[in-house]
Design a protein that fits this description.
Helices cover 26% and strands 28% of the residues. The chain contains 9 helices and 26 strands.
Length: 551
């Protein structure tokens, strides 16, 4: 029999008892929280590193779709793309897969892969359907960078490539572009990596990469020059046409080598600096660093003489024209008929000291030569372009030089008129003498002699007719035999001069040609009388004669 619980409660109040065990319903939310926490922990614990990329334009980059690959394997994904705080570039945040942090170093490279057409051909055709993606080239040096620059094209040399980087500088822009070949005697050994203009130095700077084992070809004595496809040069040395290799025929490139006759030198260091010359010929001028300066004063036109023109002695180059014209500080000259144009030249002893010996004293030889007629003159080097050069040679009838030998710090070499000027002066002298000849009296006398010759021929014809009459008359038979024989021989001789005979025709023809020559010579003489140099320089045509009305 069940007892009434209220029977023991004398007061009649209910007693409340708390249940101490928990309900199984709470198991489900607890497990859910644990699984969610594990998922969150696993997600963040297995997330790869975040990479910040900067670029000028995010063309083709789609957050959540643009993948990051390395050697065609997906290693990450672009998460976001936004403008920077200064609005100057785009910041792209990407997340790499777990374990890919070992690919991030200071020299790691990112670039966008998309369809491109370049000098190497068509690349990135596979992205026409799949879309652009970002390629990562793993680095090896340094720690992970805070951000990386996203390139538009792949680097020409990988960070782990063995070779040497070379820096070039040039005064002219647009000579080389990234990707142009670097050649050694026509064989490709590297490429141009970068080209940029330095506004501070006001010159172009290029970076080359020469791969191993050809990096040992770069030494301290090599020279770099622009290798054009086809180069045409018309200078004082004449006309030259050079054609490069097929690799540089359309795009150009850069070549290097050690100048002929020079030592190889020591092996170049990485990122060594060199100068880029315009062509291989201009390298020769850079090899001679020592020079002696001389001043020349010309009293003729220097048109066609330019800086860089050679200074020669009987075909042997001694130096180079430095400045045309040369402005001498604090020196004023009067602009009159004796005005002389100063020209500065550089005599370079190294051009021939190796051949003639180091003890060859050029300055002493020049000083001795000035006392024996050594003079400088301008001569034509190229008839097409009119280029001039300076020629040193001994001139006849030139004694010891007694003029000033120095102006300031510059020694003076005396000059004479050039070959063309000398020839012009001789022609003018001949024309002056020709003009002084009494040509008009000579022409008058020759015309009178021609008329007298014609009268003589007429008298000779009359005499011949009389001789024929005598020889054919009946009285001829009554003369002695000797006289008859003499008259017959005289008649025979006279027949050779009568009209129709060869001698008569030749004489008449010579007289007619002489008359024609004299008639044609008269206008020439009239032109020379008015302009004495008409035989050298074309004379202006005379005006047509004006008709006059009858009085």
């Amino acid at each position: 029999m069940r007892k009434n619980p209220l029977s023991n409660n004398q007061s009649g109040e209910a007693r409340i008892t708390q249940i101490k065990r928990w309900s199984p319903v709470w198991i489900v939310p607890i497990i859910t929280i644990l699984i969610g926490s594990w998922i969150v922990y696993y997600h963040f614990s297995h997330q790869g590193p975040e990479v910040v990329l900067t670029t000028a334009n995010a063309d083709g980059i789609v957050p959540g779709k643009t993948a990051i690959k390395s050697r065609s394997v997906d290693i990450g994904m672009v998460e976001s793309a936004k403008l920077s705080d200064d609005l100057q570039h785009v910041e792209i945040r990407a997340r790499l897969n777990t374990g890919m942090e070992k690919m991030l170093h200071q020299d790691s490279v990112f670039w966008t892969v998309k369809p491109q057409i370049g000098r190497e051909g068509v690349t990135g055709l596979g992205t026409l359907l799949s879309g652009s993606y970002i390629e990562l080239q793993a680095g090896r040096k340094g720690e992970e960078a805070a951000q990386y620059k996203l390139l538009d094209s792949p680097p020409l040399a990988s960070p782990d490539a063995k070779g040497i980087h070379i820096s070039l500088n040039s005064d002219q822009a647009g000579q080389l572009n990234a990707g142009d070949p670097v050649l050694f005697r026509g064989y490709r050994v590297g490429s141009v990596e970068l080209s940029r203009f330095d506004p501070v130095q006001r010159q172009m700077e290029y970076q080359l990469f020469i791969q191993a084992p050809y990096d040992r070809l770069v030494t301290s004595n090599v020279r770099f020059w622009k290798d054009s496809g086809i180069a045409v040069d018309m200078s004082a040395a004449g006309m030259r046409v050079e054609m490069g290799s097929l690799a540089t025929l359309f795009s150009g490139g850069v070549s290097f080598d050690v100048p002929e006759g020079w030592d190889l030198g020591t092996t170049a260091e990485n990122k060594a600096h060199y100068h880029l010359f315009n062509d291989q010929r201009s390298i020769t001028d850079s090899l001679y660093t020592q020079h002696d300066d001389y001043l020349l004063f010309f009293n003729e036109s220097i048109r066609g003489l330019q800086a860089g023109a050679p200074v020669e002695f009987r075909g042997i180059r001694l130096g180079t024209v430095a400045q045309v014209p040369f402005i001498i500080p604090n020196m004023l000259k009067k602009l009159n008929g004796d005005y002389r144009i100063p020209v500065l030249i550089k005599i370079e002893p190294e051009r021939f000291s190796k051949k003639l010996g180091a003890d060859f004293n050029l300055q002493q030889r020049l000083a001795d030569g000035l006392q024996h007629g050594l003079r400088a003159s301008l001569k034509t080097a190229n008839l097409i372009t009119g280029a001039l050069y300076v020629d040193l040679d001994f001139v006849n009838n030139q004694g010891a030089y007694k003029g000033p030998t120095k102006i300031g710090q510059y020694d003076i070499i005396p000059t004479v008129d050039g070959g063309l000027t000398q020839m012009q002066q001789k022609v003018m002298s001949i024309l002056d003498k020709f003009e002084k000849l009494p040509l008009n009296p000579l022409l008058t006398e020759a015309t009178g002699s021609l008329k007298e010759s014609q009268k003589t021929m007429q008298q000779l014809q009359i005499t011949l007719d009389h001789v024929n009459q005598i020889t054919n008359s009946p009285a001829m038979k009554t003369l002695p035999q000797d006289m008859q024989q003499t008259l017959r021989e005289l008649n025979q001789s006279m027949k050779g001069l009568q009209p129709g005979s060869p001698a008569y025709n030749k004489l008449v023809g010579n007289l007619q040609r002489l008359d024609q020559v004299l008639a044609e010579l008269q206008p020439v003489l009239r032109t020379i009388n008015t302009k004495s140099n008409a035989l050298v320089f074309e004379a202006s045509p005379a005006k047509d004669p004006q008709p006059k009305r009858a009085k």
